[in-house]
Amino acid sequence: MLKDILDKKQCFKLVCGCGNEDEKEVEKLVALYSKAGCNFFDLCAKPEIVDAAKRGLEYAGIKENRYLCVSVGIDGDPHTNKAFIDKNLCVGCELCKNICPHQAIESMDGFCAVNQKRCIGCKHCVDECGLKAISLKAIPQDLEEIIPPLIAKGIDCIELHAIGEDEEEVDKKWSYLNEVFDGIMCISIDRSKLGDEKLLARVKRMLSVRKPYTTIIQADGIAMSGSVNDYRSTLQSIAITEFFASKNLSAYIMSSGGTNAKSTELAKLCEVVPHALAVGSYARKIVKDYVAQDDFLTNQEIFDKALKIAKNLIEISLKNMK
After folding, report:
1. Domains, the chain, ordered by start
2. Mean pLDDT of all residues belonging to the chain
3. What residue ranges in 206-275 does DSSP mark as E strands?
4. Of 64, 186, 189, 211, whose Cβ has the fewest other Cβ atoms within 10 Å?
């Protein structure tokens, strides 16, 4: 059970990307990281993506102790954003294309365009474009429409990204999820919009409707910022992990948001031991060149090279959590 690996503090979650709708990439990532020892997978909340993840698990040939989570968010949460390029301002310089870590930008007729299925709203392109031709727009999510089909597919966890100031919307969506789903739930939250006092009050209110240790608090440092493997990049993730860990809450604590291969090492040095580690940008980056190849799942040599890299990340991370 998912609860068992959380209790043992041996849970590694691969974040495929809340907005990652690329079925083939998700299948490859899940196949690779499942084979490498990853036991928890965070997915875009779409039935076809859950199906792709299940194909990845089948490829890996590991059916036990592998768990799927789908992520949804409140309006304004950065994880629900997608990038859009204004053709009236774009000059086709391709700076955005070159910096995008997800290969979500394509050149078309002298302009650049965003492949919405691959975009996860990381904002790298927005920051790079000096012409301000790129903007982020939140994609609305009707939970009553999207959640029931996912539950029917068979999922193990639902994660609510609650980064924002609208307490009413947080409560409304959290209440609905608790009505329709009786599995492990996850609260993804950071300090970007709320001070510590309001942050803790929100989490305590959300936990008050849950049984003890049926909820994960995903403590996000800086969302989608973990592509660099150094202590500085993961510092905020460990800081907010320590904040929640020190509050004696009846919930599991998961480090995320800027996590990399040094996250649990830094946590251990700070005498903070999370129940779980979630890695997204960095975990995808280190195997990107292999996964991008069309024959990744049929070329054993390529797969094995990526597998060695993925295994190393997981082994290092979990060793420091013991």
Report:
1. 2-75+141-319 (3.20.20.70), 79-138 (3.30.70.20)
2. 94
3. 215-220, 252-256
4. 64
